[in-house]
Each structure stands twice: as C-alpha cells, then as structure tokens.
Amino acid sequence: MCLLIMLLLGMVNNACADEGYKLWLEYNKIADRPAAAVYKQQLKYMIFPAESDQLKAAKAELIKGLEGMLSMHPADTKSITGGQTIIIGTTQSLKGLAVIVPDSIGNQGYLIKTALINQKKCILITAKTDVGVLYGVFNFLKLLQTRQPINKLNIADRPRIMYRVLDHWDNLNRTVERGYAGSSIWNWHRLPGIIDQRYIDYARANASVGINGSVINNVNADALILSPQYLTKIQALANVFRVYGIKLYLSVKFSSPVELGHLKTADPLNDDVRKWWADKIDEIYRYIPDFGGFLVKANSEGQPGPQTYGRTHADGANMLADALAPHHGIVMWRAFVYDNNVPDDRSKQAYNEFKPFDGKFKDNVIIQVKNGPIDFQPREPFHPLFGAMPNTALMMEFQLTQEYLGFSTHLVYEAPLFAETLQSDTYTAGKGSTVSRILQGSFNKKLITGMAGVANIGTDLNWCGHPFAQANWYAFGRMAWNPDQSSSAIAGDWLKMTFTNDAGFVSSIKKVMLQSRENTVNYMTPLGLHHIMGVSTHYGPGPWVDNAGRPDWNATYYHKADSAGIGFNRTGTGSNALSQYAQPVQLHWENLQTCPDEYLLWFHHLSWTYKMRSGRSLWDELVYHYYMGADSVKQMGLIWDKMQGKIDVERFNQVQQLMKVQLTEATTWRDACVLYFQAFSKMPVGAGYPKPEHPLSYYKEMKFYYVPGIGGNNYMTN
Ligand code: BDP
C-alpha cells in the first residue's frame, strides 16, 4: 500500500518505513531493470560449500543480499555453467577446483575475480581463510549495492592494519560515557540467556567493513567486568562475534587485584599481583579461547595505574602482556595521560611520559594514542608521539562518538578529520613519514599495528542517533582496513549503500558530507582554537569556563584571550610543545609565514590586530569563520530540502529536523563565542553580519539538565 501511494505520487522511493536500522546493509531492491537483469544473468548458480560457522554466515549474507537486491537466490550447483556461476570459498573448501590465491592477500585478504575454471568463465570469491571469504562476500555485495559492473573483475585486497577495533565506552549499568544514541546495546541483565538480534547485526555490520575487534566496556572500567558472573555473559557475546571474525577485548581496571581479588596492592611487580592476573587471564581464556586482550586506561583522569605504586607505564603494560602472551592476547595501553600536578602544557605530557620508554614494551603491547595531543577536538594537529617511538607499536585512537562535534545532532562526516591526521607528514623518518605509514608499520615491520575508534553506537533504532553518524562508523572501518582510502570515495559508497544510487542525491550530499567537518570547526573552534566547550557535559560553547575541577579543564587555559590577543603560545617563547615534533614540522608551524591558519592559535598567541593572509585582522578573521560556519549549516539545510522524494520519507524528515537543530546550535556557538571574545578584543563585528539575539550574559547562564553522555559508574570527567 505504502509503495503504491508513493508510486502514485511519483516518488522515486525505494523503501517504506525506514528507520535506518539496516545501516549500509539495506540491500534495497535494484529498481533499475537493465542493471538488475545483467546481474541476475551472471549469478544464476553458486558453488559455495560452507561447513564452518564463518562460511555459513558468508553464504547467508550473500543470499540475503541477492534476495534483497535482485529477488533471487542462486541455485546450488556442483558444476560450472559458463558465465553464470559464482564460486565462493577458501582454497581448502573449494578443493578439487585447484584455486590459487596470491600470497599478497595475506590471511585476511580476499580475491574477487572473473576466472576461467575448468575452462569455464565464472566469478570467483576466494581467500586463504574463512574470514577472508566473509570480507570478500561483503565486498562483492558492495559492488552490486553501488552498481558496479561484474563481468570483468579482478580485485585483490587485504587489510593494511592488523587490529581494527571499536572501543565502546559502555558501562555495566548501560549508560554510555559520551554516548548520544541511547543506552548500551549490551543488555547485561538479559545476558547470557538472551541473544539480541542486535548483537548479530552489530557483528555483521562490523565485518562488512573489516572491523575485527570490539572492546565492549568503558575505559573507565569497573573491576566487576572480570567477575565470573560477567565472564559468562561476555562469553555469550564472544560466541556471536566469532562467527563474524571479531575478537572480544575488555577494558580493565588496574586495581582489579585489590577490588576483585582482595589483595593489598595492585603493584605490577608484586608476585601475588602477577599471579592474580595470570590466573584471571587463564580463566578468561577458558570462557573465550580466542579472547583478544585488554585495553587499559592507567594513571589518567583519576584511574589507578602502575604509577600509583611507584612503577612505570612499561612495568604495568608488560606485566599484563606477560600474562596474555601464552594465549596470544595483546595489551592496548592508552597514552591519554595528563596530570594536573604537572605544571607543563597538557599537550606535552603524553609525549613526555611515554617517549622515554620507546623500545621498552613487550611485543604484544601496543600504545593507543589519540589522534591529537589534547582530546579529540574538532581540529588538532597530529599527536607528536606518532613517529617519536620507532621501536614501539603505536595504534591510532579516533573518536567516532561526537563528544566535541555536536553530539548526534550535528551532521559531521569525520573521514576528512581521520584523513587529515593520517596523511600528516611527521618527518620523523624523513619526508613521507606519514602517520598512516607509521600506523601500517612501514618503518618497523616487526611491530604489531592497530587502529581504534571510540564507538558511536547505542540502542537508538538507527544505532548512532543521527542517520549520518552511521557514516562515521562505516568510514572508520574502511580507513582502518586501508588508511589511505579517500574520504570522498567512502562517502560515495556509503550514500549509495545506505540511501540510493540516485546520481543527483549522491553528488549533492557527498559535497555536504565532505564540507561538514570544516563547518563545525568554523562555528566551534576556528583558527586552531580548542577546548572551549561547556564544562563536564561538553555540550555547547563555554569559552568563559575558568573554574573547573583542575586548571587544564578550563577553556581559559587553552585560548588565553586577553586584551592583547588570543591563542596558546607553544613556540620556543612559550610552552615549546613544538619541540616535540621533527624539525621540519616544528619550523613549519613555528614560522608565522608558513603556519597554516588552521593551526594558528593552537601554536601562537597573537594580537587581535595581527594581519592574516586574507588581509583581515585576526579579530575580523575569527568573526568571519564563526559566521561562515553557521551560514554553511544553513546552506546545507537548503540543499537537503531539495532532496525530498529522492529517499525514504522517514530519514528525509529526520535529517531535516536535525539540520534545523544544528543550525540553532551553530548559531548559539557563533554568537556566544563572538560576544565573549569581543569583550577582550573590543573591536566591532562587521556591519554585514546579523546581530546576536542575546547578550553574552544570556549564553553564559544557559543551563542544560540531564545532558546525555554522562552519569556512568566510576566516573571522572573533565
Ligand atoms: C575524554 C572524555 C572522557 C573520557 C576520556 C578518555 O571526556 O569521558 O573518559 O576522554 O578518553 O574525552 O579516557
């Protein structure tokens, strides 16, 4: 009926009620007849022997995709019918067909190829391992989802990063720290008995983009997670994940031996402590034989750690690594540390604490470093630790959940942010030492490699709150698989797979997505400003915050605005944080002639009248960016309005409403920040700009209650 009405209304719609639950695995019917007929012709039969759980899952996915897109189910066959058979399996499961795969695809890669087998032309999807086949099948389906020709295929692909992990900041009480899409998807009370379909769909979605690990609980961890009661529940999740090639990891609290084991200390060099961890780890592996390992936030924001007992990060990480090594588990040890008792610039502290330990960590330890040196700000220069520890495995930590990017209300496509960091040249091993290459282990082949994304997933029907926030989960997976992929290509695929192949929609909305992060930088923190959001909740503007729990949680610590100017001097005459970068980078950013506008106030304190490249004064430039940011949200809304009828009504309306809220919030950011900084610059706002609706006092007094993302257990917040 719904479809009929839409057809009558002449809408080019391909779905009725669509709440976005299916993510990019919509598998909508291919309405374009010639394309569908050509595909159908080539996929009449399949040879897909599937005995293992992973191969069965791959086969079920293929059938689901083909049924959805083409209303067809290739017939199982044993013989090859020329041009019409699709052959799928590992070199072993396809024994008898003498399938050969290139070594270059490694253990997790795959081959999708038009091949002559037994003198007959067919489509071959193969790999060395079951999980490789699973990835191959998802990528084959992607070809159809994005309407690629399949008559002449030759795709060999493999992941460039070993550990491609989602970090959930989920608490045991089901709140999600910095989560804006409902509650935790892990229903602890009902586990292990009830396996929610969501767990399976979560694992499918991850596998479809090559994510192969999930840390299921908050880095501000509860020791209870290691109790037998929870391990039984966790085992049930691991059983679901395994089918899709995903390993389960846990965040652990360093003081667990005290809290759970009733020991007097958690000193990593104490024998009883070491034994406690070794026993606990043996126990975990009895529940989950392929358990991935631990993620640890230690001596950071109030969390206990080895330094609590006079030991070092290396002592702590290596103790856990020793206990995990016999089981092939790893330790992801976070470098997000800073101490309010250290008077030094917060941006320097992680480097200062970790660099001296280069080469001192065990082989199965990987240091997890946030993309920038402060904390997931809308824009940060790359973290100086990348490249500074050539003998230590380092993994990237990106944040998908939009803690500092307007929560799940603002459309912010993060791939350009990821790419900006990944393609930054650290120069630590000469020109071309990009963060991406460092992460891929290009400069030290012995090291393990990884990339983590702090998940933006919750119980909302559409998983991520904003329909476009799904793109960040998707893009993270794609970039963890291959950090050099283009943001634009990923956006294009995601739009087609999630919404429609309509060329007008894809090209217009791809532009919107690619511009969206810069818009947000402009209306929140232009020209290198950072950490000026509302205290604790991190919601809305708060450049005036000057009384937080510790100095380096104050906005005033970061922008340093006064009557003379604005910005954090991190050059040699200031905190000298620049000295942590390789010399070419240091010189480039230190010199005002070459420092890009994007990082200007991150590294320099400049007078309000400082003349910018544009010819404007710094004050005028700042105002210009704030107004441009809010205005571009308005433009984005106008473009979206034109998309009516091109996609399903539900998501169209939802995005339209969200964009209106985003515009209101962007305007608040703009007005609050311009008014606040104007109190220092004492300079006028150009005549052409609309006046703020309210005085500064109004913005300063705005109060927000029950803001999402806070209220968990074991909670320390900045
Ligand atoms: C900050 C968050 C805080 C996290 C912390 C972390 O505000 O909730 O616990 O990062 O990464 O961005 O540990």
TrEMBL record:
* Keyword S-adenosyl-L-methionine recorded: no
Signal sequence segment:
1-17
What reaction does this enzyme carry out catalytically?
Hydrolysis of (1->2)-alpha-D-(4-O-methyl)glucuronosyl links in the main chain of hardwood xylans
Gene3D superfamilies on file:
Alpha-glucuronidase, C-terminal domain (3.90.1330.10), Chitobiase/beta-hexosaminidase domain 2-like (3.30.379.10), Glycosidases (3.20.20.80)
Q: What sort of enzyme, by top EC class, is this?
A: hydrolase
Gene Ontology cellular-component annotations: extracellular region
Alpha glucuronidase N-terminal domain mapped to chain residues: 23-140
GO biological processes:
glucuronoxylan catabolic process
Enzyme Commission number, as recorded: 3.2.1.131
The record's annotation in SUPFAM superfamilies points to: (Trans)glycosidases, beta-N-acetylhexosaminidase-like domain
Q: Which UniProt keywords apply?
A: Carbohydrate metabolism, Glycosidase, Hydrolase, Polysaccharide degradation, Signal, Xylan degradation
Report the superkingdom from the record.
Answer: Bacteria
Coiled-coil annotation reads: none
Task: Please list the GO terms describing molecular function.
Answer: alpha-glucuronidase activity; xylan alpha-1,2-glucuronosidase activity
The answer to whether keyword Transmembrane helix applies is: no
In what residue span(s) does the Glycosyl hydrolase family 67 catalytic domain sit? 144-463
User: What positions does UniProt annotate as the active site of this protein?
Assistant: 301 (proton donor), 375 (proton acceptor), 403 (proton acceptor)
Q: Which residues form the Glycosyl hydrolase family 67 C-terminal domain?
A: 464-688
Subunit: Homodimer.
> Would you identify the family this protein belongs to, as annotated?
Belongs to the glycosyl hydrolase 67 family.
Q: Can you say what this protein is called?
A: Xylan alpha-1,2-glucuronidase
